[in-house]
Design a protein that fits this description.
This protein is an alpha/beta fold. The chain is built from 26 helices and 27 strands. Helix content is 38%, strand content 13%. The longest helix is centred in the middle third of the chain and has 22 residues. The N terminus is likely disordered.
């Protein structure tokens, strides 16, 4: 179904009537993950990895054409990455930290360029050279690598991979639209290099970065690219450190060079560029002014005032802007891409309602209106048709209830929705009447289905009182816990998981297929737990864990044991690098039919005299790392999950478990990008955690864990969780959060990570000691715990055991220095 029929009001460049802002890049069966990891392991060559990547890229663009996007109108995005789109810009500019300078090529053909091995080294570290810091990409479960930009960081256009990939697709018969992180977002998300002077900001290098982008645009124009997409999501948030006035000035400066000084169709190659689509996903580009200090926030008008050719706005997280005089100045010569199809969740759209939204967008006065996704489809799985659906009442494991087939839209279905809406724009609604009616019926079916509303769940939530969200005085709790646990200063522990060996994965796979009996599976898992306990006791850790061998994923495992969730077989999405997860689908009211973790924790406790932590995933993280129902407030759903976890914690406590850790690594992730929306979020997110954890006795110690994020904005919320001990990711940032916690008056237990588990490096005892010394110099040593940054599931024992040896040795050394 073609969607490239021009609208009568299309601008002269000719933007298509429908597009998507990006597409999954890992492959339908995680082929990229497997190829990259084989390269890391030395099992394949760089050429073999490049060949696999080429096959995946071409398969993706051809699939998009088959699904209804045009082969020759640039509606197909070119959004591939081997690891991370922000790292891709860093590599394209040769802007690597000085510790990686030796990885840059020096020859006439590769000067300043990273080869694939160097590219991955910057991402993962090597020897004593720590990798780039990693944090969340806006409000998603995707992680990007934070560039380190200083006054002397080399910046120029050195790697034309984006151009080569465009040519590759063009030669295969598909004219793509290359997708690149925009220059302002790239710099606004960067951190200053360690040797940068006081007062320096990465945005100080804007002119250098824009000059490099200009070279990229010239190269794309020379290769025949009609369009390029520059993603500037930084414009939808007011919660970054850079004032909006500075961002606005940067946008005006950058796009004056890129869109005004360069022009579409210029005969002089030095002045030529493709048409530019600036995309602003993850929130609203408000046309009505929102005051940020003295500066008026007016993101859509800001972009409309530049000479870019099209602007894509998110109309799922953001509302249709309401211009004061009806039309936004500057839009008359541009295409406005209405992002009405949700790129961040998996529910089928009501197409008639989406067309109604598109109709309201016309009032903004754009020269043409197109339809698109709100974000890249990177954040959803490939295809609903890759799943298996059981007969009614027989769904189990990864076999889905057949009702879900009509309710869900993964990436391929969303492309189909965009194609249908585009056809409605060009041919009228009657041309797609059958598709519109089918979508309406699917939405109605979901709303009326049994299990979506469970009266007993609603009644229990409605009966909650303030007392259900509160524990007693912390000082009294701390005294009772120390009397029970008798822990030394700087107690050592891990976050929870231990390496998942091939043997563990094989046993779980055989059990899932029915080829291993329940009894044999339980025996295999118990043997692994006993081995993990023995390792921890030999290492001398103070608080032990069972290692979680029975868990496939920290969210999926709980979803499989809670009613109201469904789990896919092939619904993989990229989390970071080669790390892929299968987010569960939370479609109905949540209940816990039976205890989930109690048997494993009780068995572990029977093997040791040391304290054992029960390990749970918190309600906010379960929501953040699932595809959540969109038919009720998130806070209501979070409380349902909180109540289920409250019951689990009560059973752990009754089984004699004295420490329970409820992980909330995604607390910062869901924080709204607008400050005005944050208090309400923090209220319900903190509340759901406290609901889960406030039913225990004073002597039961509640831990939580946070990672993958910049925590400065949620320091108050961390305190508000009222956990007895909080462990946080801190190794890559060298304890950056510790003084922030001190300054905020945080006084309960804190475990700043001293071992970066996201890198294969084994930190030395001296390195861990130095980090721990930084921590105890900033805050009271009596509240400091010693632990890794995160769980050890993705690491190997060859790395894990020596790293933990160094951690314990460092803790003992620093402990000996305390008065």
């Amino acid at each position: 179904m073609a969607t490239s029929v021009p609208s009568p009001t299309q601008n002269p460049v000719g933007f298509p009537a429908g597009t998507v802002l990006g597409y999954p890049r890992i492959g339908r069966r995680r082929e990229l993950k497997k190829a990259v990891e084989a390269f890391w392991a030395g099992k394949t060559s760089a050429d073999e990895l490049e060949a696999t990547a080429r096959e995946l890229r071409l398969a993706a663009v051809r699939r998009l054409v088959d699904l209804g996007l045009g082969a020759d109108d640039a509606s197909v995005p070119g959004s591939f990455s081997f690891y991370d789109q922000v790292l891709d810009v860093t590599a394209s500019l040769g802007a690597v930290p000085s510790r990686f300078a030796s990885l840059l090529g020096t020859g006439p053909d590769d000067a300043g360029r990273l080869d694939l091995a160097g590219y991955f080294t910057v991402a993962r570290g090597q020897g004593d050279d720590a990798p780039l810091e990693m944090t969340k990409w806006f409000d998603t479960n995707y992680h990007y690598l934070v560039p380190e930009i200083g006054p002397d960081t080399p910046i120029r256009f050195v790697d034309d991979r984006v151009v080569r990939e465009f040519v590759e697709a063009k030669e295969a018969g598909v004219v793509t639209r290359p997708v690149v992180v925009g220059p302002v977002t790239f710099l606004a998300l960067s951190k200053a290099a360690d040797d940068a002077p006081a007062g320096y900001s990465p945005l100080d290098r804007l002119d250098d970065v824009v000059a490099a982008y200009a070279d990229l645009l010239r190269a794309l124009a020379a290769a025949g690219a009609p369009w390029v997409q520059l993603d500037e999501p930084i414009l939808v948030t007011d919660s970054v450190d850079v004032p909006f006035a500075d961002l606005a000035a940067a946008v005006e400066s950058a796009y004056r060079t890129l869109a005004t000084e360069l022009s579409v169709g210029a005969e002089d190659a030095a002045q030529a560029r493709p048409a530019i689509l600036v995309a602003a996903p993850f929130g609203g580009l408000q046309a009505a002014a929102e005051h940020d200090g003295a500066a008026a926030r007016d993101g859509l008008a800001l972009l409309a005032g530049t000479d870019v050719d099209a602007v894509a706005i998110d109309l799922v997280k953001g509302a249709v802007p309401a211009a004061a005089d009806g039309a936004v100045p500057g839009l008359a010569g541009k295409t406005l891409v209405a992002g009405v199809i949700d790129g961040h969740n998996v529910w089928r759209a009501d197409l008639a309602a989406k067309l109604d939204v598109v109709d309201t967008v016309r009032a903004l006065g754009a020269g043409a209106v197109a339809v698109g996704t709100s974000t890249s489809l990177l954040h959803v799985p490939h295809d609903v048709e890759d799943e298996t659906f059981a007969e009614p009442g027989t769904a189990s494991g990864t076999t889905l209830d057949p009702r879900l087939r009509d309710w869900l839209a993964f990436a391929d279905q969303k492309v189909g929705e965009v194609a249908t809406l585009a056809r409605a724009l060009t041919e009228g609604r009657d041309a797609v009447a059958a598709e519109i009616e089918a979508s309406r019926a699917a939405v109605a079916s979901r709303a009326e289905a049994s299990g979506v509303v469970v009266p007993a769940v609603r009644e229990r939530a409605a009966a909650l009182t303030d007392a259900d969200f509160a524990r007693g005085d912390y000082a009294e709790r701390a005294a009772a816990q120390q009397e029970r646990l008798n822990l030394p200063p700087l107690p050592t522990t891990t976050i929870g998981s231990f390496p998942q060996t091939p043997e563990i994965r094989r046993a779980r796979a055989l059990w899932t297929k029915g080829e291993l009996s329940d009894a044999d599976y339980t025996t295999a898992m118990r043997e692994e737990i006993a081995r993990v306990v023995a390792i921890q006791e030999e290492l001398g850790l103070d608080v032990l864990v069972h290692g979680e061998p029975e868990r496939n994923d920290m969210v999926q495992y709980f979803a499989e044991h809670l009613d109201g969730f469904a789990v896919t077989a092939n619904g993989w999405v990229q989390s970071y690098g080669s790390r892929c997860v299968r987010p569960p689908i939370l479609w109905g009211d949540v209940t816990r039919p039976a205890p989930i973790t109690v048997e494993w924790s009780a068995y572990t406790a029977s093997l040791t005299e040391k304290p054992v932590k029960g390990m749970l995933t918190g309600p906010v993280t379960i929501l953040a790392w699932s595809f959540v129902r969109d038919d009720q407030p998130l806070g209501d759903t979070a409380n349902q999950v909180g109540l289920a976890l409250r019951d689990e914690i009560a059973d752990l406590e009754a089984a004699g478990i004295g420490i329970v850790q409820v992980d909330e690594p995604a607390l910062r992730e869901l924080l709204p990008l607008r400050r005005a929306d944050q208090p309400a979020y923090l209220d319900w997110s903190v509340g759901s955690f406290r609901l889960a954890t406030s039913g225990v006795e004073a002597a039961t110690q509640i831990h939580t864990h946070l990672c993958y994020s910049e925590f400065g904005e949620v320091i108050g919320a961390i305190d508000g969780l009222d956990a007895d001990v909080t462990s946080v990711e801190a190794a890559r940032s060298r304890m950056e959060i510790v003084p922030e916690l001190r300054d905020a008056g945080y006084s309960r237990g804190i475990g700043p990570g001293v071992y970066d588990i996201h890198s294969p490096r084994v930190p030395s005892t001296e390195e861990v000691t130095e980090l721990l010394e930084l921590a105890v110099k900033s805050i009271d040593p009596r509240v400091v715990w010693v632990n890794p940054d995160c769980g050890l599931k993705t690491r190997r024992y060859e790395e894990t055991v020596p790293s933990l040896e160094h951690l314990v040795t460092a803790a003992k050394a620093v402990r000996a220095t305390l008065g």
